[in-house]
Design brief:
Blueprint: E1 4-5, H1 13-31, E2 57-58, E3 64-66, H2 84-98, H3 106-115, E4 119-120, E5 135-141, E6 149-154, E7 169-173, E8 181-185, H4 188-202, H5 208-214, H6 227-238, H7 242-254, H8 258-272, H9 278-290, H10 301-324
Parallel strand pairs: 1-3
Antiparallel strand pairs: 2-3, 4-5, 5-6, 6-7, 7-8
Helix pairs in contact: 3-4, 3-5, 4-5, 4-6, 6-7, 7-8, 8-9, 9-10
Length: 325
């Protein structure tokens, strides 16, 4: 009985000679009968010692087929390219579940997240924990343990007001550890601009992917060399960012000017305080730490308690909005 190769497994020049010798040896063994053995039985499965070939298998016609091993290349994600399957999964979630059109610059947003060290999600159910009901998870960072960080889009304000897709706020949460949601940017476009400006300002090796991703959608405008000046420019020219407010406030406090730091913190409270609780907590912390009657500073601890009371009211309203939905 002859040995044949499957049509889908063409031999290479390097493997042709060993394969021919192995087939000839197998035929010679087959044609030399042994006592007590019937060669009318189906041919035994034989293993050919040829590099790149797997164990031969028997088909219905009792023929031995040589099957070549084929290495399938798995697409590898790069900081500049997000897997199309992940992008399609997110867009399908928006279309089929939320029944909305994807926000503008969604693809760029995903690329910037990935270049920032996040892993774009393909299935949100693997997150676990107590994810905020208003949070649309997009990406994760870190191991899948208690410190897992989820970055996503808040589709409603904390008090329950519905937002259009282009107004969805960029937030983070550690759902396996806390229910606290942290505001990063008021929308996707501002987030992209901030990341582009900061990456260009730092201009380090790890910032090059973000610079490359955003160069076609945004022209960097800040030309200074001072980080403090960049923070001020972001607030004036791009929009309000909680971390920028906090950086400026702490910069003045560390330079011995707590009053200016408190003014900046109070400005942040006026900007975000109607929807978010964190500005009240930050102002309360500054009042208790630097305006407690020590070091010739006035005692404003009662005002700090009032801020905490307001934070508690906002937290209660947030919980009520969750249950209402």
């Amino acid at each position: 009985m002859a040995l044949t190769r499957a049509p889908s497994a063409p031999s290479t020049p390097a493997a042709a000679a060993p394969a021919a010798r192995a087939v000839a040896a197998a035929r010679a063994v087959r044609e030399s009968p042994r006592p007590g053995r019937s060669w009318m039985l189906p041919a035994p499965v034989m293993v050919l010692p040829v590099l790149g070939w797997r164990r031969a298998t028997r088909n219905r016609g009792s023929r031995c087929l040589l099957q070549a091993t084929v290495e399938v290349e798995t697409p590898v994600e790069t900081p500049l390219e997000v897997s199309p399957a992940k992008v399609d999964a997110l867009k399908s979630l928006l279309k089929d579940v939320l029944e909305v059109k994807p926000p503008r610059q969604l693809d760029t947003f995903l690329q910037v997240l990935q270049a920032s060290g996040y892993t774009i999600l393909e299935d949100w159910r693997e997150i676990g924990g107590d994810l905020h009901p208003f949070l649309l998870p997009v990406a994760t960072r870190g191991e899948f343990d208690d410190d897992l960080e989820v970055c996503g889009l808040l589709i409603r304000t904390p008090n329950g007001k519905q937002l259009r897709p282009d107004e969805w706020q960029v937030v983070t949460q550690q759902p396996r550890k806390t229910k606290v949601v942290k505001l990063v940017a008021l929308d996707i476009s501002r987030y992209i601009v901030k990341q582009a400006e900061e990456a260009t300002f730092r201009n380090k090796k790890q910032d090059l992917p973000i610079i490359e991703i955003t160069k076609d959608v945004y022209d960097v405008r800040f030309k200074g060399e001072d980080r403090n000046a960049l923070d001020k420019w972001l607030l004036l020219e791009v929009g309000a960012f909680p971390d920028v407010y906090k950086n400026l406030a702490m910069e003045h406090i560390s330079n011995g000017d707590p009053m200016t730091g408190l003014v900046i913190a109070d400005t942040m409270r006026e900007t975000f305080g109607y929807d978010w609780a964190f500005p009240h907590a930050f102002v309360s912390s500054l009042l208790n730490s630097y305006f407690n009657g020590k070091k010739e500073m006035e005692n404003r601890t009662i005002e700090a308690s009032t801020c905490l009371h307001m934070m508690g009211i906002l937290s209660f309203c947030l919980c009520a909005a969750q249950y209402k939905q």
